[in-house]
Each structure stands twice: as structure tokens, then as C-alpha cells.
Amino acid sequence: MSGHILIVEDDAALCQLFERMLASQGYEVTLAYDGSQALATIQQKLPDLIILDMLLPYISGYDVIRAIRADEALKHILIIAATASTIAQNMPETAEADLLLMKPIGLFELRTMVARLLQQSPAQ
Hints:
Blueprint: E1 4-8, H1 12-24, E2 28-32, H2 35-44, E3 49-53, H3 61-70, E4 78-83, H4 92-95, E5 99-102, H5 107-120
């Protein structure tokens, strides 16, 4: 497997767990712990896929999706939105994600969905 994945999650332990699992699958993984850090990281190096918690400090995952989808140079980036909130399923920004996963997310489920999305991506 190959590809650059940005994990945006304010729970540091969960973020690092996802990082270890995805890195062991051969992905290059970058971490961000809030929305503003995510947007800055994207400007430095474009990821192929973002795993994005929707409830983040400073700039929410909803705002991150809005910013990415509004930018012609970024809108191709695959996004997996992650939330524990059932309300998020009905938010318009969530519909702009390529996939919505409800927390808690199993490692097998995440690994499978990441591989599937990256295989389907024309950039891969």
C-alpha cells in the first residue's frame, strides 16, 4: 500500500493508534490535533486521504471540509469523516465527505475503508 494520510483527531491516544496501524500498512501518516493545524499541514504537503474528526477545537471538522471542498487545488482529496454524533450524519458538510464512519471506529474497519478508498482513487 502507499499513499499519504493525514489524521486529524484531538484525542492524541486515538490519533497515535490510527497512525501506528496505518504506518504498519505502508502508508505515510501525518498527524494534526485540531482543524487549524490540519489546514496548515495540508498547505505544506497534500495528503491523498484525510481521516477527519468532526468535533475539533479551534476550527471544526465541518469548517475543514468546507475549506477543502471550496478550494480547486484541494477538493480532490479523499475525506473520511469520523464522529460519535448521530446529528453529524445530517449535516451538509458531512455529505461532502467521501465516507462517514461512526465512532468508535474499529481498526479493521478503518484499515479496510482506507484501502478501498485509495484503490478507487484516480490519483493512486
